[in-house]
Amino acid sequence: MLDKLPGFIVDKETQLLPFLLEKYANKGRNKVKSMLTRGQIKVGNRVVTRHDHPLIPGDRVSVLNTGSVQQRELMAGVKMMYEDDDIIVIDKPPGLLSIATEEEKERTAFRILNDYVRENNPKSRVFIVHRLDRETSGVMLFAKSETVKQRLQDNWKELILERSYVVLVEGQVKEEQGTIKNWLKESSTKTMFVSRPGDGVVAVTHYQVIEKSPLYSLLAVQLETGRKNQIRVHMQSIGHSVVGDRRYGGKRSPIDRLGLHARILAFTHPVTGETLRFETAIPAKFRSLVAGKKA
């Protein structure tokens, strides 16, 4: 375990990894790189994981203690992708709720991030902007004030530039690409279903095949609308339920999780106007299953 390390003020233009290697020459390249990967490095108030992050004179680089709230929660699989004064972006692991339910109030992405921001300021908090299902992994955006949350939600369609998922489904999808458009409605048991035109809400999903085998297909999916369980019910509607999704017709669960990952989120920053894009890797288990390897 690393000791609590001091911060440093940058005195010349450079990149983050070379700067850290110079400051911690006795620790070795792999150890320093792992500090970045684990989200231990902050530049100013932002957690930075990119090795080539540019530094300019006056930047303050500090290292979080592995015993901090953030580090304890990173052990549970939460990865910090970006932070500034207004927003936080994380890579959420499967199995973690976005926000509390009657059954689970403690271990949620919301609670983890609230604890993290309150470490520096007890009055700070985060705000949910959108949700991912418990068993869905991937990129998730939080606001650090009510104002920013409202701005994001009120202007969601204009601010979101790209929202892409990778989906592992049962069976071989024949069409290389396609669009699913229909009406969705929620049942009394909180399950979404395809309803008749004009009854419920319109949902539009675009998909493209990345890889496929006789048993499974891996799809890149883009949402034109963001309805509850939209991808899951749409995949069921074309006869190719998401792997592991028993609620929406899935028959097999070979990877012990839902085959749904929020891979890309690009948006216009609600305060600065800057274009930000976050991309995560396709889960290795998804590719292995399509390739016929043991997941």
TrEMBL record:
Query: A Gene Ontology molecular-function term?
Result: RNA binding
Under which name does UniProt file this protein? Answer: Pseudouridine synthase
One BP term from GO:
enzyme-directed rRNA pseudouridine synthesis
Q: Active-site residues? A: D133
Protein task: Responsible for synthesis of pseudouridine from uracil.
Signal peptide location? none
Q: What is its EC number?
A: 5.4.99.-
- Family membership noted in the UniProt record: Belongs to the pseudouridine synthase RluA family.
**Tell me, what's a Pfam family for it?**
PseudoU_synth_2
Q: What does the UniProt keyword field contain?
A: Isomerase, RNA-binding
Residue span(s) of domain Pseudouridine synthase RsuA/RluA-like:
86-237
